Amino acid sequence: MSLIDGSVRDLLAAFSSSDPTPGGGSAAALASSVGASLLLMVTALPKTRSGSDDDRRALAAAAGALSDLRHGLSAAIDADTAAYDQVVAAYRLPKSTDPEKAARKDAVQRALRGAIEVPLQVMQLSARSLEAAAAVAAHGNRGASSDVGVAVALLGCGLRGATLNVEINLTGVQDEAYRSNLRIELDRLGAAARASAEAAEAALA
User: What are the φ/ψ torsions at residue 106 (nearest 5 degrees)?
Assistant: First the structure.
């Protein structure tokens, strides 16, 4: 059974087991998916910031975006585990002969890229969720400001956790051009996320 389809108790037990998966990547995706879910809750509240049509339109637009973002983030909980399992399997391939060594090397490089793709997507989805958080903070019910604040914190945590997972897997990738381009993307996403988080926090103040 997938992690996302089990109980919270089972999920926590899986995280605390001695198995290498689920690990930090799945935890990061979980944090961001909970953050996006909290934002969705605020968009659905009957009261808005000022009760205006502008508030309701802005929250409806945010809800439309967040619904898809949450779906992607929750799917990444299991996807990250599956991707890292492929890395473990690649490193366990035989390496007694030169052909085996070459095949193992190729498999490891493919698996590492796969293990980068998922947390990179979590970063992207988290950054876009933080953009929506700024709108929710500006137009949502003031009584739910703590919920929005927690959502922003969780999304920031999820993005940071996903960044760490991209970086650790990137150390094993031998394609320098790929590594260079990815570092540029990490910096871009980090800067965008910080700006959105600051905008949301300013709106809550």
Answer: -60, -40
Q: What is the DSSP secondary structure assignment for residue 46, as one 8-state letter?
A: S
| In the block, residue with structure tokens 């969705």 | 40
pLDDT in tens, 18-73: 988 899 999 999 999 999 999 999 999 999 999 999 999 999 999 999 999 999 99
Confidence of residue 5 (pLDDT cuts 50, 70, 90): confident
Structure confidence at residue 85 (pLDDT): 92
The residues, any chain, with a CB within 8 Å of residue 23's CB and separated by 6 or more, are 15, 80, 81, 84
**Residue 202: count of CB within 10 angstroms of its CB:** 11
Calpha distance 58→46 (Å, rounded): 14
Contact 60, 43 (CB under 8 A): yes
Kindly report the pTM of this predicted structure: 0.93
Residue at token pair 């989805």? 125
Rg (CA), the chain: 19
Contact status, residue 40 vs residue 66, Cβ threshold 8 Å: yes
Residue for token digits 């019910």? 141
Which structure tokens are listed for 56?
Answer: 């309701």
**Sequence letter at residue 123:** M
